[in-house]
Amino acid sequence: MKLILAIKLGVILGVYHGVLSNTDDGAVENSQQTILNEFNQQLAQLEERHQQERQRLVQQVKDRQVQQAKDRQGPHQSEILEEFNQQLAQLEVRHQQERQ
Question: Considering the domain boundaries, does residue 15 fall inside one?
């Protein structure tokens, strides 16, 4: 990203130098402002894209960590509790049948 910014800055400065050698002072100020505005706009766009890409990568890492934690955890506690309750109910039924 720094390389891209350096290249764009070089191009802008080259254009700026060319403008300086071919125009009068009033036009130079307008050209300077135009070049600066364009540079700032491009820089803002690059920063926005960089931030979006960073957020996307951070979300991917978080999702991967959550999935890995789920994989290591095995069955969820609610599933284990449900299975335990089913087995307990079966034992109670058998116990009732044996009493009769």
Answer: yes
